[in-house]
Specification:
It comes from Corticibacter populi. This is SMI1/KNR4 family protein. The protein folds into two domains: 161 residues; 189 residues, SMI1/KNR4-like, CATH 3.40.1580.10. The chain is globular. The N terminus is likely disordered. The protein is of the alpha+beta class.
């Protein structure tokens, strides 16, 4: 018999993380990612048209607070939306931001910003920050206005986050659906990692942020992997004895390489596999942990074995209790004891076949290219 219960609202889950200390920027970013995936057709449970209509008035606010496009583009393409944002900033008491936007709407950019460098024994160097050609409007450089908005937008982001959560009963945000049962179990983690390192990896990214990004705006970024030599056998044997069989699949990967930086492009990496001697026990934050005592025990001895490239959140392996063998994110999944991957093998399988499910799991990963920051996106249709 089909499940008649309404689908869970992922906004409720995000609200819990926000109340436990995640920032307003994090909340708005996660919400935007879900909505963008739904619009692009990449969400497991896309929004229907009635649900999307409820989100339309929030869409511009999300993009503005996240700084997804220059003020020049707002002025050129969406001046009416910018007028509504300015009015809301004024009503919310964000006077500095409201004044900046008011001047922009009147065609008055803020002064360009200058960066000063001081080196001992050398003359002072000054650099004026300027906008690229596609971020100019009406023949004017708006880079100073972009910087001023960024400096005064934090309070407005908090206002928008609180208003959005106050109305979340009317806003449905798709969450994750259980993955379809695989036709075959994943290969052992060590074999999958070896295959990943042999594979020429390329990911797609874009700096175009709109309702529907054009496939022509996608950039294909070649990726490299940086590895270290294998761990000594005696060290692996020690950790095997210390943590038991549940750690065996992970230790097998360190018999190949004792740590690695994966999906590197320029100075940015997507995931860092920590050397086995740098593993640490995951400690639950003081803001609260899993409600179930058995789940709390599962995470008390969880091993922090990897770290994402976009923040300080760790991937952890639960070594005891009901979650033993599962892989989850320390801050995003830990408080709810949410099992992100059923096993270490499944984690590395996703890293090989669906890397964005790992790299973008706790926030949108960005790579620098030609002075711009690009966000990873699903590959365009063939």
């Amino acid at each position: 018999m089909p499940d008649a219960r309404p689908p869970a609202n992922h906004l409720d889950t995000l609200a819990e993380h926000y109340r436990q200390g995640k920032s307003a920027f994090w909340l708005l970013s996660q919400t935007h990612l879900r909505l963008q995936a739904s619009r692009d057709g990449g969400a497991p449970r896309p929004l229907g048209q009635p649900e999307w209509q409820e989100w339309l008035r929030w869409w511009d606010l999300l993009r503005f607070c996240l700084g997804l496009q220059s003020i020049a583009i707002w002025l050129r393409d969406e001046p009416q939306a910018l007028q509504r944002i300015q009015a809301l900033a004024h009503l919310a008491g964000q006077d500095a931001l409201a004044d900046i936007l008011s001047e922009a709407l009147q065609g008055q950019p803020q002064a360009a910003q200058t960066v000063q460098f001081h080196t001992l024994g050398e003359a002072e160097q000054r650099y004026t920050l300027t906008a690229p050609a596609h971020e100019r409007f009406d023949g004017k450089d708006w880079s100073g206005t972009d910087i001023a908005i960024e400096q005064h937008c934090d309070g407005f982001a908090v206002v928008i986050a609180e208003l959005m959560l106050a109305e979340r009963a009317q806003l449905h945000l798709p969450g994750d659906q259980p993955a379809a049962r695989p036709t075959a179990p994943p290969q052992p983690a060590a074999e999958t990692l070896a295959r990943l390192l042999r594979t020429e990896s390329r990911l797609f990214a874009t700096e175009i942020f709109g309702v529907a990004a054009s496939p022509t705006a996608m950039r294909e970024l070649p990726m490299q992997h940086q590895t270290t030599p294998a761990a000594e056998a005696s060290l692996l044997e020690f950790f095997q004895h210390l943590h038991g069989p549940v750690a065996a699949p992970l230790l097998a990967t360190h018999a190949l390489h004792n740590g690695a930086r994966l999906f590197c492009h320029g100075a940015q990496h997507g995931l860092e596999l920590l050397p086995v001697e740098d593993w640490a026990l995951q400690q639950q934050g003081s803001g609260g942990g899993p409600a179930d005592a058995a789940d709390a025990d599962s995470l008390a001895d969880a091993l922090r074995f990897a770290r994402g490239g976009c923040d300080d959140e760790y991937w952890v392996l639960a070594t005891a209790g009901p979650l033993a063998g599962a892989v989850l994110l320390s801050e995003t999944d830990g408080p709810q004891a949410h099992r992100r991957f059923a096993s270490v093998d499944a984690f590395f399988d996703a890293l090989l076949h669906a890397p964005l499910s790992v790299l973008n799991a706790s926030g949108q990963l960005r790579y620098p290219l030609d002075g711009r920051w690009l966000e990873l996106r699903p590959a365009p249709p063939a």
